[in-house]
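Hi support team,

I've been running sequence recovery on a batch of backbones for a student project. Most finish fine, but this one hangs at about 90% for roughly twenty minutes before it completes. I'm not sure whether the input is malformed or the queue is just slow. I've pasted the structure tokens below so you can try to reproduce it. Let me know if you need the job ID as well.

Thanks,
M.K.
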């Protein structure tokens, strides 16, 4: 007699928004003040879960970028001369203030980006604060971090961040830049600017000298103006490989330092000796965390042939338990796709997978009628040449293949233009080390996935970019020697 399937009916647990403040309109943050854009142009940022407008956002043009760069240059003359201990005090204060307002930041991140409140609350915001804490501690120890090398700041850093982890990416870039004595012009993504602008308010309250951090909002043209500005000494970009290549070309003839953290197509590899239930949780975390809007998402799954059916059955069962819906509901596992455009991109990949003959499986989750949504999805029967395997989808879509031997797993894992991250699941330490030594990935997780720490460097190879963020590597990217 078959067992009756147990379905848990969970009551809503909606996070309150009473404690947050979102202004109707946001200006540019330049020279420690909020100033209107030169051409008085604005655009809307919307909640992807219900398509409702959240606020009007200033759009910066070249003239606005020039004002921000000049402000940063003026501030650099004094900020770079401050002792490391004094700089560290400011950075530490910002970290504490983020902690104190963590709930507000988490809710705004979820409203603007569509990610589940549990992820914003438990991962994004604490990690952002931790990066400021970590680099506050290094500000007066640069000579010890780089002995006999006489480190000194670069100057004005132009920083462009993506929409998938808005506040965390801002922290990854701003904190080490300030610790090293640089000043900053940051451009957030146009679809998720609110937590960066809320950070600007916090920076203003912190007493950080005017012009040390400038935050300018806009779309691609605003970013291009920042990249091409002659007054910028270093560009740090996190985003798509296509845009990264354009930035590389734009800066090639200049003296600007450049770090790029670009796309990925990570291999998550399950061996027959792995703890299968644990591995399945790692698969889910690797691809459905933040709706798959993760550059290091484990979007290619390789399972050893002897346990392939077992893993697939468990994974499909686990997918059925994932709750898709209101990102503010604490029960939600998979939130809204960040934008209408990104949803169209994901849907086009799903259609192409079906057209290629791959076998599609999606969860039976009921999607809300308003907003941008995609069910957790997986494909089997995919070839190595498939678009699902070779191209970054940036959504909750998993391509699954089998392998027999270690060498086959390594060969398939490396058969990609990307080289950002990977995951290995096995109980053999020797197998882990063998895999690590032969895989082209900047970060390799063993028996876990998507674990981050401010002290650990993160970055990739090949078309995943170059340079590292986090740890001492993150400091060196903002120093001359």
């Amino acid at each position: 007699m078959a067992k009756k399937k147990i379905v848990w009916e969970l009551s809503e647990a909606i996070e309150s928004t009473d404690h947050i403040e979102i202004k109707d309109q946001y200006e540019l943050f330049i020279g420690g003040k909020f100033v209107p854009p030169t051409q008085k142009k604005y655009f809307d940022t919307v909640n992807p879960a219900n398509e409702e407008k959240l606020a009007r956002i200033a759009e910066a043009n070249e003239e606005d970028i020039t004002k921000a760069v000049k402000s940063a240059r003026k501030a650099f003359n004094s900020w770079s001369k401050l002792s490391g201990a004094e700089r560290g005090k400011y950075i530490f204060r910002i970290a504490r203030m983020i902690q104190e307002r963590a709930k507000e930041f988490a809710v705004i991140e979820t409203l603007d980006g569509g990610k589940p409140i549990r992820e914003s609350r438990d991962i994004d915001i604490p990690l952002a604060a931790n990066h400021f804490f970590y680099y506050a501690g290094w500000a007066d120890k640069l000579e010890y971090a780089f002995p006999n090398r006489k480190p000194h700041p670069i100057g004005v850093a132009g920083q462009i961040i993506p929409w998938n982890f808005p506040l965390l990416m801002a922290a990854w870039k701003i904190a080490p830049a300030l610790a090293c004595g640089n000043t900053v012009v940051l451009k957030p993504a146009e679809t998720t600017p609110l937590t960066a602008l809320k950070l600007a308010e916090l920076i203003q309250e912190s007493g950080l000298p005017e012009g040390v951090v400038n935050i300018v909002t806009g779309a691609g043209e605003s970013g291009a103006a920042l990249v091409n500005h002659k007054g910028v000494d270093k560009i740090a970009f996190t985003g798509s490989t296509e845009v990264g290549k354009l930035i590389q070309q734009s800066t090639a003839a200049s003296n600007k330092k450049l770090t790029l953290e670009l796309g990925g197509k990570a291999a998550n590899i399950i061996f027959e000796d792995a703890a299968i239930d644990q591995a399945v949780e790692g698969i889910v975390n690797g691809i459905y965390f933040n709706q798959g809007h993760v550059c290091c998402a484990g979007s290619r799954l390789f399972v050893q042939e002897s346990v392939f059916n077992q893993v697939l059955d468990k994974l499909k069962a686990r997918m059925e338990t994932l709750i898709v819906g209101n990102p503010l509901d604490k029960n939600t596992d998979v939130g809204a796709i960040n934008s209408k455009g990104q949803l169209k991109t994901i849907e086009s990949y799903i259609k192409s997978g079906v057209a290629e003959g791959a076998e599609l499986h999606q969860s039976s989750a009921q999607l809300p009628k308003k907003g941008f949504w995609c069910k957790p999805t997986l494909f089997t029967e995919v070839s190595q040449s498939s678009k699902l395997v070779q191209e970054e989808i940036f959504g909750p879509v998993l391509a699954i293949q089998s392998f027999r031997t270690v060498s086959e797993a390594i060969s398939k894992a490396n058969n990609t233009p990307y080289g950002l991250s990977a995951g290995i699941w096995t109980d053999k330490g020797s197998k882990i080390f063998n895999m690590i030594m032969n895989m082209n990935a900047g970060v390799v997780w063993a028996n876990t996935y998507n674990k981050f720490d401010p002290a650990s460097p993160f970055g990739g190879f090949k078309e995943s970019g170059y340079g590292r963020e986090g740890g001492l590597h993150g400091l060196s990217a903002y120093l001359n020697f």
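--
Follow-up from support: It reproduced on our side and the slowdown came from queue contention, not your input. The radius of gyration is 22 Å. No action needed from you.
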